[in-house]
TrEMBL record:
Pfam families for this protein: S1
Domain of life: Bacteria
S1 motif domain mapped to chain residues: 6-74
Compositional bias (Basic and acidic residues): 75-96, 122-139
Protein name per its UniProtKB record: RNA-binding protein S1
InterPro entries in alphabetical order: NA-bd_OB-fold (IPR012340), Ribos_protein_bS1-like (IPR050437), S1_domain (IPR003029)
Length: 147
């Protein structure tokens, strides 16, 4: 029996270490399943998943020139992997008033402008005071620049 990359084989767990499990493939051939290739989820202790003597289906991932065989239980399972969607970050700026939609007339009254202006000035003063309060201590206060 020749062992080729990509082949699915039946094997028996012959030994367990802290980094993986050795699988007896028959005819004196042994391969290693690394701890990361045992399950799709995180495996802290291999003994929680496998025991010596378990029959497992493995997929050959690599065959070295020196005879070392790399195996994977995770890839031997026929479950399709869920596709990872790229993370999209949305930024929202709630500080600016939203423009009026097309087709809707904007209300233009002296009261509306005055209230908008006063709220803008109040908000601006609050922001400036918080910026000053947060940066003065970090830059050394009101002195000249440090050399």
């Amino acid at each position: 029996m020749s062992i080729e990359v990509g082949a699915k084989l039946q094997g028996k767990v012959s030994g367990i270490t802290n980094f993986g499990a050795f699988i007896d493939l028959g005819e004196g051939k042994t391969g290693l399943v690394h701890i990361s290739e045992i399950s799709n989820g995180f495996v802290k202790d291999i003994h929680d998943v496998l025991t010596v003597g378990d029959e497992v289906t493995v997929k050959v991932t690599s065959v070295g020139d020196d005879g070392k065989v790399g195996l994977s239980i995770r890839k031997a399972q026929d479950q399709p992997q869920p596709e990872k969607k790229p993370f999209k970050r949305e930024f929202r700026d709630n500080s600016r008033p939203k423009p009026a939609a097309k087709g809707k007339p904007q209300t233009s009254g002296k009261q509306d402008f005055d209230s908008l202006m006063s709220s803008f000035l109040k908000d601006s003063d609050d922001r400036l005071s918080s910026i000053k309060r947060n940066t003065e201590g970090k830059r050394g206060g009101r002195g000249g620049r440090r050399s």
